[in-house]
Amino acid sequence: MKIGILGVGHLAGYLVPGLLREPAFELLLSPRNAEKARALSERHDLPVAPDAETLVRRSEVVLLAVHPAKAADAVEGLPWRAGQTLVSLCAGVPLDSLAAAQPAALARAMPITAASIGESPTSLWPDLPAARQVLAPLGPVIALPGEAAFETATVAAAAYGWLQGLIGALAEWETQAGLPPETARALIAQTTRAAAAIVQARPEASVEALTRDVCTPGGITELGLDHLERAEAFGPWREACDAVLARLEGGG
Ligand SMILES: NC(=O)c1ccc[n+]([C@@H]2O[C@H](COP(=O)([O-])OP(=O)(O)OC[C@H]3O[C@@H](n4cnc5c(N)ncnc54)[C@H](OP(=O)(O)O)[C@@H]3O)[C@@H](O)[C@H]2O)c1
């Protein structure tokens, strides 16, 4: 399948190695920001299109990865055709504002940088087969039933960064308390992965029940969780989710 990437910046640097996990994909990069396009092209031995028109003409699926404020202009006036699919990865940009790309079929998706290692939970709406096929090598594709649900799901993409912040804070504490930094980092990263893995492996149990399960009465997990709950530590996380959703609903 021929896939064009329109907008080769930070996200594209993570998308490309993920997409190349599928040997049947032929990637083409857009030329805007020549320095970044050249660097990405040289790193992965990929062609750069001479212009955006050629990229659209040669691609079956185009992934749009420009700044949200530039998304509508970026698709304007290009030779879109029926049978082609445009997948916008631009946060908070409603599909309506990309109508200039019709008659191409339009979809929105939200990968995260773990796409580079095939671990991105990638939200998708609507669930177009061509879009799903292109996103599959990046990690599990999660179809959403509508655009409002897609915006809500996009909050998780922001939370990915906050979870990395939490890993950093816990690893820093372990380091200050005496562990070698690389040991602290590996320990906390694997602990975070383990917490997520057990939640995924036990769908029959509520997350609340799993949490209670690891809290021995009078034990250390209960001690720390009680402290966090008394300090209302989870409240700011909910408020951060509200703030991000409000921003997304206001246009990214
Ligand atoms: N960063 C992430 O982890 C992440 C995750 C999920 C979704 N996203 C979404 O992905 C999009 C891109 O984010 P980013 O962090 O990769 O931004 P970025 O680093 O600024 O990259 C955007 C690239 O698009 C280029 N560009 C601008 N206008 C263009 C046009 N008309 N045609 C072709 N290319 C054009 C820019 O070139 P110039 O520098 O010359 O302007 C730049 O190289 C955003 O909408 C964001 O919401 C990002």
UniProtKB/TrEMBL annotation:
Residue ranges constituting the Pyrroline-5-carboxylate reductase dimerisation domain according to the UniProt record: 156-247
Protein name (Swiss-Prot/TrEMBL): Pyrroline-5-carboxylate reductase
InterPro entries per the UniProt record, alphabetical: 6-PGluconate_DH-like_C_sf, NAD(P)-bd_dom_sf, P5C_Rdtase_cat_N, P5CR_dimer, Pyrroline-COOH_reductase
Taxonomy, superkingdom: Bacteria
Protein source organism: Tistlia consotensis USBA 355
GO biological process: L-proline biosynthetic process
Residues binding NADP(+), per UniProt: 6-11, 65-68
Family, similarity comment: Belongs to the pyrroline-5-carboxylate reductase family.
The keyword Oxidoreductase belongs to this UniProt entry's keyword annotation: yes
Keywords for this protein: NADP, Oxidoreductase
